[in-house]
Amino acid sequence: MRVVIDTNALVAARFSPDGAASRLLDDCIDGRVEAVVSDEIERENRAILQKVRPSPAFWDRLERFYAAAIRVTGGPRLDVVEDPADNKYLECAVAGGADCIVSSDRHLLVHDGFRGIRICKAGHLQI
User: What pTM did the predictor assign?
Assistant: First the structure.
């Protein structure tokens, strides 16, 4: 399974180490799930996570997550989501051939899916 993980899911992983988002992060690091990421998403992740002061151990997990992730560049520019800042997740998913976007963002979750790509919360993802 190939997924794009929204920043809010990584924040959830930071605050709930036993939660679904944290388990998904470990699944990506361990290769059970393929994560897809773009430079734009990584920049947002790092900026937001820095504000919530993760531990050095979490930063290490995040570095391992990025090292294991499939990096995409280019791809289509989309204008689908009510919040334009969230289009980057759809763009990354399309460019990277993702099966699912994992998010708790209402602007993304309002869509049942997009071009065959599911959009769901970490707790609803079945691996």
Answer: 0.90
* Amino acid in position 115: R
Could you tell me if 16 and 114 are in contact, meaning their C-beta atoms sit under 8 angstroms apart? no
Position 108 scores a pLDDT of: 77
What DSSP letter does each residue of 44-112 carry, written as one string?
Answer: HHHHHHHHT---HHHHHHHHHHHHHSEEE--------SSSGGGHHHHHHHHHHT-SEEE---HHHHTSS
Measure the N-to-C terminal CA separation of the chain; round to a whole number of Å. Answer: 7
Pick from 23, 1, 86, 11: which is nearest to 47 by CA?
A: 11
- Pull the structure tokens for residue 96: 């990277």
Q: Which domains does the chain have, with CATH numbers?
A: 2-124 (3.40.50.1010)
Among the ranges given (20-34, 37-51, 76-90), the one the predictor scored with the smallest mean pLDDT: 76-90
φ, ψ dihedrals at 54, nearest 5°:
-70, 160
With H, G, I as helix, E, B as strand and everything else as coil, classify residue 13: helix
Neighbours of 34 (CB within 10 A): 17
